[in-house]
Amino acid sequence: MAKHQFQTEIGQLLKLMTHSLYSNKEIFIRELISNSSDAIDKFNYIRLTDEKFKENDWKGGITIKLDAADNSIAFNDNGIGMNEADLMDNLGTIAKSGTKSFVESLTGDAKKDSNLIGQFGVGFYSVFMVAERVDVISKKAGEDQAYMFTTDGTGEYEVKPVVKDSHGTVIYIKLKDDEKEFLGKWHVEGIVKKYSNHIPYPIVLNYEEDETTGEGDDKVTKKVKKSEQVNEATALWTLSKTELKSEDYNEFYKTISHGDDEPLAYLHNKVEGANEYTTLFYIPKVAPMDMYRADYQPGVKLYVKRVFITDDEKELLPPYLRFVKGIIDSEDLPLNVSREILQENRVLANIKQGAVKRILTAIKKLKGEDAETFTAQYNRVIKEGIYIDHTNKDTLLEIVRYKSSSEDGLISLDDYISRGDSEKKEIYFITGEEERVLRNSPLLEAYKSASVEVLIMDDKEVDPIVTPMIGAYKEWTLKDITTIDAPDSKTAEEKEEISKEFKSLTDKIKEVLGDEIKEVKTSTRLTTSASCVLKDSSDPMAGMAAMFAQMGQEMPEIPLILEINPDHDMIKKLDGLSDEGLFADISWILLDSAKLSEGLELKDKTAFTTRVTNLATKAL
Ligand code: ADP
Ligand code: MG
Fold first, then answer.
1. What 3-state class would DSSP assign to 427?
2. CATH code for 3-213+222-227?
3. pLDDT digit string (tens) for 403-462?
4. CA-proximal residue: ligand 1, atom 9 (nearest)
5. 491-620 falls under which CATH superfamily?
6. Best label site of 6, 38, 240, 472, fewest CB within 10 Å?
7. Nearest CA to ligand 1 atom 19
């Protein structure tokens, strides 16, 4: 008999299962049933699409056998089964990079953590919360030899050939001494109903019960074998909406989410007409752990006429909706649809289009706390959507939320419009790295004093790329305040006047700063600050941030313009200053402090501190 070592990561995982995640042990039942159901799905599919596997009287099903005398529980399915290599690959190693991130995501809260098990594709190992030993006896459909995989979960496993009549898998679990609760019929039945009621195959419980016959001295109690189907075994989405209550939907959600939570929202639609299909989608309350991983597990399963086709097709919904869980069941697609066909299939494209519209409508309808939860979890992927989904851009723009200079919390673009200047139709925004810096930016001063609202966009990885793509929303143009003139009451003539008045000063500052700065101008956007810097919007690179980001390149540096506040005391005094050295120091300080206010890096920090220290010394 061949002994094998578990992959190191599995060893770690097993330790976790046995020592940390034991507060919610019952979920091992959900995970094993889910695996059996998947295996039956797979066999059902090849039976219908491949002559070789045609079996006329086959009906998928799962039995759970409780054996009190043996202290064991066993799960038996007639699914696709595993051969020797499958057993070693699927149970002895973890193909997905999932385990590592699973271990990293653990919060220490055992209940929450055990809900992560299913999400990370490590469900099988949950048996070690209750098992002293596990035997997996399996025969793969179409093959002659069956194999048994045995382990006590401490780091090694064995695989050997055994005899088994039909294809499918038996997971035999020798329970630990203190896990007798999993021998109780009512207990196990309750768990199956809780998590697996709508698994579309019958789950039959085999158990023994005491039965007493006779009276008085003739009274005898014997163990009697009983057998009972404990789940409804209907694919929930095939039922009519009117038959279903929200509890039914929530219960089904537990089956497909491998969790205990209720969803934030669900939507169930049967569509008839040119294409006939049913969709049932859920929006989880908490974003999937792998939402920002390239190898995320898609949440939507594809069925054709109730036959499971795939749960690994990322194209079923656009990528920005990858947090949605659920099913699509089509009446029109062929059963043997391949991945290539799927990706350019008209039927599926239609389904997808309708599904996106319905999901977005459901999101729009979220109110109050639910809407806030949605924003907290998914605002960022909605921005992704704005960037790529031009068809639904307007709807996504209704959903997205932003911070604002006018209030704490998040607002919608409609909120902005409702209180903005409806003649001008402009939505002002500023993007950057840090909320605090943005809120205190000198560039905002003029907007604040004119009571004009500005959106504060501090998601530095997303906003600077997505926002310039928006263009307009309901005919309101989005304007980056670092590239436009500030709102003020001065006429062009007045501005010209001021600029002339200070021309010798601005020229002199430019002379000091040289190539550090493209231009020095008098400003009308400042009230309290002495100076500010802005990017030169006439520079051809200025509008191309999005393009550079898309190509994965860093944005080339855009020249800066320094603006000085002609009403500021410091500027007024600087105008007549004869001390050349002091003039130079102050010019540099005007530039560097303006840069700091925008959160920009200084090229020479030491020079800046030296100048400030010099100045302070003089002042004293
Ligand atoms: P996941 O189900 O997310 O893939 P699991 O740890 O639950 O992760 O199962 C690992 C793999 O073992 C499955 O993907 C499947 O290939 C295989 N497997 C587990 N149980 C069965 C079963 N009853 N029949 C066939 N294959 C199974
Ligand atoms: Mg599983």
1. strand
2. 3.30.565.10
3. 999 999 999 999 999 999 999 999 999 998 889 989 988 889 889 988 999 999 999 888
4. 124
5. Heat shock protein 90, C-terminal domain (1.20.120.790)
6. 240
7. 35
